[in-house]
Amino acid sequence: MAKSPARPAAPRSGPVTIADVAVAAGVSKQTVSNVMNYPEKVRPQTRDRVLSAVADLGFQPNRAARALRSSSAGMIACRIEPVSSHSLAHLHDRFLHALAEAGQAVGRHLMLFAVDDVENEVVTCVRLVRSGAVEGVVLYNVVPDDPRPSMLLDAGVPFVCFGRFSDSAGATGWVDVDNAAGIAVVVEHLAAGGHQRIGFLGFPEGHRVGDDRARGWVTAMDRHGLLAGSHRLDVRGEDTWISGARMARGLLDRADAPTALVAASDTLAAGAMQAVRDLGRTPGEDVALVGYDDTPSAEVLDLSSVRQPIPEIGRRIVEALCPPDGTVLSVATLLAPELIVRGSSRHRA
Amino acid sequence: MAKSPARPAAPRSGPVTIADVAVAAGVSKQTVSNVMNYPEKVRPQTRDRVLSAVADLGFQPNRAARALRSSSAGMIACRIEPVSSHSLAHLHDRFLHALAEAGQAVGRHLMLFAVDDVENEVVTCVRLVRSGAVEGVVLYNVVPDDPRPSMLLDAGVPFVCFGRFSDSAGATGWVDVDNAAGIAVVVEHLAAGGHQRIGFLGFPEGHRVGDDRARGWVTAMDRHGLLAGSHRLDVRGEDTWISGARMARGLLDRADAPTALVAASDTLAAGAMQAVRDLGRTPGEDVALVGYDDTPSAEVLDLSSVRQPIPEIGRRIVEALCPPDGTVLSVATLLAPELIVRGSSRHRA
DNA sequence: CAGCCGGATTTTAACGTTCAACTCGGTCAG
DNA sequence: CTGACCGAGTTGAACGTTAAAATCCGGCTG
Question: What are the chain B neighbours of A100 within 8 Å (beta carbons)?
Answer without folding.
Answer: 80, 112-114
